[in-house]
Amino acid sequence: MIKNYDVAVCGGGFAGISAALAAAREGKKVVLFEKEYMLGGLGTAGLVTIYLPLCDGFGHQVSFGIAEELLKLSVTYGAEDKYPKNWLDGVGTKTEKDKRYEVQYNAQLFAILAEKLLIENHVDILYGSYVVGVSAKNNRIKTLFVQNKSGKNAYQIRSVVDATGDCDIAEFAKIPTETFKQGNVLAAWYYFTDKTGYHLQSVGASDVPEEERTGNEEKPLINNRFSGLNGEEISKMVCLSHGKTLEHWLKKRETDPCAVISTIATIPQIRMTRKIVGEYELAHSEMHTYFEDSVGMVSNWKKRGPIYEVPFRTLYNKKMKNLIVAGRCTCVNETLWDVMRVIPCCAVTGQAAGTAAAMTDDFSTLKVSELQKKLQANGVFLHERDIL
């Protein structure tokens, strides 16, 4: 046994950063395990450096608290694109005619600033570390087994936030999960420089959910679909991604000899893999729906208008009392999954999960009203009626 912690956060993407920060600010002893050597996940190492909208597209900010704090952190030294100054400095009228509240930021700077923020809040960060198993007793996880350069070590914990993006901890704990049926298409985002500066080049992304298809969608880069849950498959995907990056850049060079690749993604650009079967499944049709146990709100980055309140029940399964999830692991239907996987949603659910993990080791009996009071005290708006 290495150390004891009040809260263990597994995964250092935006959901994990938010969860660790929220738990630490409640005065708890927090450890964050991150398998890479930088924070931010797809939003940094994966080069998906677009902090998608905090607003509904009609002038109303929807996501607050740490979601807004991290957006502002990402542009501490300026934005690379999509800088909505009227949202950040209060100048101008916010309407559907204004740009949505989103930015494009520098991945490397954000990773360093997020690390600094967590250290200042006394979070222990263990890089190159990931959970490979758990031990549980009486429906509670007691120990996390963590692999890193030191070998395999055991950490005793009180509560766990699964922010792995792949719901790995829930899987280890034998909690019901579901995989992404549609599968991931190939993506090959990279940065390049030319005479005009430094640019993000997005090649491929996520596919359109079946229920939103119109027949006019772009064809994926490759017909293969990837689950993101198999080591050999992921390696094949990364190799294909590198090939597509090279192919795309060579074509660009034909018309622009000054274009040079600056950075490629250092992790697989996989969007959705596995999610928890929670106490409630939020559906894409439940926009503008009031939930008594809402722990925050998110918008739809793909269209103006929809606002979703996030029920606390989407973050846990009562079969494992002290395990809660955040980010793209939350319990939503397949269509809404493509909305809930993005940065603002990860930050909203991460803050809720981290705050709850600091309060209890039994999420099924937690008084949600007490959790809501803490979230509101930290700047979170819970219901749509609060902002309209």
Number of strands: 16
Taking Cα atoms only, what radius of gyration do you get, to the nearest Å? Answer: 20 Å
Could you give a short account of the major beta sheet?
Answer: 7 strands, mixed
Given helix and strand content, the structural type is alpha/beta
Shape: globular
Strand content: 15-25%
Report the end-to-end length measured between terminal Cα atoms: 51 Å
Tell me, rounded to a whole number, the average pLDDT.
95
Order of helices and strands: EHEEHHEHEEEEHEEEHEEEEEHHH
| Uncertain stretches | none
Our count of helices gives 9
**Secondary structure: helix percent:** 25-40%
At a glance:
The chain is an alpha/beta fold.
Task: Label this structure with key terms.
27% helix; 388 residues; 7-stranded mixed β-sheet; 9 helices; single chain; 3-stranded antiparallel β-sheet; alpha/beta
Could you please describe the fold and organization of this structure?
This protein is α/β, with parallel strands linked by helices and 388 residues long. The chain contains 9 helices and 16 strands. It has helices spanning 14-25, 66-74, 85-88, 107-120, 168-172, 231-255, 334-340, 343-359, 368-377; strands spanning 4-10, 30-34, 50-51, 103-104, 124-127, 130-137, 140-148, 151-162, 177-179, 190-194, 197-201, 260-264, 274-276, 294-299, 307-311, 323-325. Strands 1, 2, 5, 6, 7, 8 and 16 form a 7-stranded mixed beta sheet that branches. Strand 1, helix 1 (14-25) and strand 2 (30-34) form a beta-alpha-beta unit. The longest helix is centred in the middle third of the chain and has 25 residues, at 231-255. It starts with a strand and ends in an 11-residue tail after the last helix. The model has no long low-confidence stretch (mean pLDDT 95).
